[in-house]
Amino acid sequence: MAALLAGTPALAQQPEQAPQPAPQVEGPPVPAVDAPPEVLPPLETLPPVPAGPSPEVKALLDAQQRQIDELSARLDDAQATTDEVPEDKLKIYGFTDFGLQRIFAKDSFDAVTDTETSFVIGNLNVYFDAQPIERWRTLFEIRFTNAPNGNLVLGPTGGTRTSTFQFDPHAGVWDAPMWGGYTVIERAHTDYLASQYFNVRLGNFFSPVGIWNVDHGSPVLIPVTPPQIILQRLYPIRQTGLQFYGSAFAGAWELGYALTLTNGRQELSNFDFDDDKALGGRLFARNEGDVRTQIGVSFYGGNAEDKVVAFSATGVPSTSSTWEYDEYMMGVDFSLDAGGTRIRTEALMQRQVYEPGKREDAFGTIGAKAPDSYRYSGYLVAAQQLPFLGLEPYLLLEGARWPGSIGDTLGVLSGA
Amino acid sequence: MNRRNLLRSFVAALLGWPDDSFAASDPISVIVHKRSSVSGVDRNELRQIFQTNKTAWSQTGDRVTPSISRRSTLPVRSSTASCSASSRIAWLATGWIGKIRGDARPPRTAPNPAAVVRAVAGNPEMVGYVPTSEVDKDVKVIARIVDGRLQGV
């Protein structure tokens, strides 16, 4: 109906006219009713019936057919976007790992950590990934833990074990047991995906440094334990603020960047303690062909301090910091995936410069203060996937150098 | 061609690996919306697009979103030696999983090649790959994979 209505604009635009009389067709005179019937002339003498529509009618029909075809194509386009291939507005996914752990160490080490054979759950992380409208995306990563249940807290006379046991107040009975645990917000940020070359991220995100901190999750990491770079927090693991990132392509190579403007270290609070903001970033070149190769350099610079509140004798509050330092970090990283072989290596240097009179306590020694220092750390891990059972044995070599209470150099060789 | 062989053959072509592990009875066509101004693609760019590293066509600068037909899950690790058909899928899957950890999405998925055709026909930004027998008038072919090699049209 719509096609027919749309296909008749010419007729619709004509002004209204009086109905036209039926066209006169010349032929033999119609005999009077009372007159005796005459033999009608044979059909061969009647005017011939036209073989097809007139040119005007044919043009009209062609125009209508084109419009029908166009509407049909639009309908096909609309039907193509069916519920069979939806764009997921919200995805929920995650990972978990489960294992059997035993630590082989001297007996005395059992005082600081449990070395016996034990089944363990390593991680339980859930992602909430929303893309409600074009070019906007929000990602939350939540980690569920049992911590601090079972944590051993060492003191001058021994250790006490933390328990999160309590009775469940909502169980219907007064003595139903339950154990609480921390929920860790690993990251929470919203991205505006402007283009290949420029995107903006706002929120709390992993610092774009090196390999381990960017990969982050256990399914893609190789060793079961984090390297000293992460354990010693030579840069803030996460930051809150802005990140600008993008990449361009040169043949098979992707050249990318990330720049951050953030609150800096936030290990004491979710808020910045001063108006200084930290700058950081990363440049990388990546080729993910038959052999995956990535080379990167990272940097970070910021100020870290604490904030204490004191009251005067008259109850007037004031704030100050007891320690404060400027820090600068530079790092390089390289990774290679060739067939079943994976190689990862990172190295970085951190420089700490304390404000005069504002040094942290150090070395667990009363009166000892942390010096200005250069801190170095790096690791190399090489792994090989085996063709059975999904096993991937690896070798890890780590080195670190920074001022410590028992020395300034650490070397680790491990594997699994 | 079943979906697993389709994916394996496609990934092998992206990587430039010879693929004679099974007989490909139907060449694979790389398709875009019929009104797309893209007329061709090389192996490097197609690989970068399906790895979701690249989000715009070099030829036109238009945004591009890859779509694949696959099962609901992919193996993370291969149980066979390198350059095997399963390891090729694992290669791609590991990249996508790593990409998720780096805050990007894997390609959009469709339950079968016909659904990929419908998705591409309805979205000017989308690119997909299907057996040539599934191609219809609503999409345009910009490349073909024949005997494991990407060729122009």
Protein described:
Chain A has 416 residues and is mainly β. Helix content of chain A is 11%, strand content 43%. The longest helix of chain A is centred in the N-terminal third of the chain and has 26 residues, at 55-80. Chain A is elongated. Chain A starts with a helix and ends with a strand. Residues 1-16 and 80-84 of chain A have low confidence and may be disordered. Chain B is an alpha/beta fold and 153 residues long. In chain B, α1 packs across α2. Chain B starts with a helix and ends with a strand. Residues 71-85 of chain B have low confidence and may be disordered.
Quick overview:
The complex is a heterodimer of chains A (416) and B (153). With 416 residues, chain A is mainly beta. Chain B is an alpha/beta fold and 153 residues long.
Largest interface: A-B, 48 and 43 residues
Shape of chain B: globular
Largest sheet of chain B: 6 strands, mixed
Structural class of chain A: mainly beta
Strand composition percent of chain B: 15-25%
The chain-level mean pLDDT of chain A equals 81
Q: How far apart, in Å, are the first and last alpha carbons of chain B? A: 21 Å
Distance between the termini of chain A: 74 Å
Quaternary state of this entry equals heterodimer
The poorly predicted ranges of chain A are 1-16, 80-84
Q: Report the order of strands and helices of chain A.
A: HHHEEEEEEEEEHHEEEEEEEEEEE
The strands making up the biggest β-sheet of chain A line up spatially as 1-2-3-8-9-10-11-12-13-16-17-18-19-20
Proportion of helical residues of chain B: 25-40%
